[in-house]
Amino acid sequence: MENLLRKLDLTSLRLFVVVCQEKNIARAAEREFIAPSAVSRRIAEIETLIGLPVIERQSRGIAVTPVGETVLRYAQMIIADIEAMSAELSLFLSGAKGSVRVVANLSSIVQFLPEDVAAFERVFPNVHIDLEERHTADVLRLVDERGADLGICNATGLGAAEVEHVPYRTDRLALAVPRLHPRAHRYAAASRVAFADLLGERFVGLHDESALTRQLAVEAARAGARLDVKIRVSSLDALCRMVHAGLGVAVVPEQTAQLYLGTLDIAIVPLSDAWAVRQLVIVYKHREQLSASAAALVRFLSQQSG
């Protein structure tokens, strides 16, 4: 019996099950589109391995022996397990099951990803998404080094990064200002405000590693000035709360600031500068090397309104 595992093949078991169902070798062969002699040979091989008969050949068909009933019971379980495995593996191939590691910048996580990931998981409930917040530079590095399946960051950070990308969403930067700020009413009365007109203000900002901090520093330098940043924090939530406390003004994604209008004492005014409208992109190393689940997530996210 120790040879069963090595020598008993699935095709023989499947044909044996069909013979038992049809009670006739000729009908089983017709159903499987093979010669009756080939079916008989497969049955004989099973009997040789076991050392006992599994069927009794009769004039009008076959009868299953008690040994055959045992083989039939296990054969049906084995075939059912193989079919279940095949069905589950097909979910991986279609992208309906698997895991995807995503690294994304703060702006995309705060503004868009919670709702988009939740919507994706309603369509693909068996795909696990591991989402981690990283600065844009780290997003690109991790995707390039294959430390993540895909990333989401600002298009301005792409530079010479050796990754592929597709558009995801756009956001607009805005000024967040305390309502009791001396010039709050003037700012709030305007439909737009130019960044150059804010360079005399005291700012609160994110840490130096953030793409937003770097972008503001670049734009200030182009205007021949330097930002007066007194306080730096690590989250957009903390940034808005600092503005609420009157510790300075801040440039933040407009949609993020809108989340706090009902709870914090701030006003927001969109920036009029062209660079204040930013493109967020989905990045990955090579499209053809994405797993089915990762490719499904890329397709889903890239279809979201921008």
Arithmetic mean pLDDT: 88
Q: What is the strand content?
A: 15-25%
- Which fold name is given in CATH as the topology of the largest domain? D-Maltodextrin-Binding Protein, domain 2
SS content category = alpha/beta
Please outline the major beta sheet.
7 strands, mixed
Give an overview of the whole structure.
The model has no long low-confidence stretch (mean pLDDT 88). The protein is 45% helix and 24% strand. It has helices at residues 4-7, 10-22, 25-32, 36-50, 66-94, 106-111, 113-123, 136-144, 184-189, 211-222, 236-244, 254-258, 292-302; strands at 55-58, 61-64, 97-104, 126-133, 150-154, 164-178, 202-206, 228-233, 250-253, 266-270, 277-284. It folds into 3 domains: 4-93, Arc Repressor Mutant, subunit A, CATH 1.10.10.10; 97-169 and 279-302, 3-Layer(aba) Sandwich (D-Maltodextrin-Binding Protein, domain 2); 172-277, Periplasmic binding protein-like II (D-Maltodextrin-Binding Protein, domain 2). The strands form 3 sheets. Strands 3, 4, 5, 6, 9, 10 and 11 form a 7-stranded mixed beta sheet that branches. The chain has a two-stranded antiparallel ribbon with strand order 1-2. The protein has 13 helices and 11 strands.
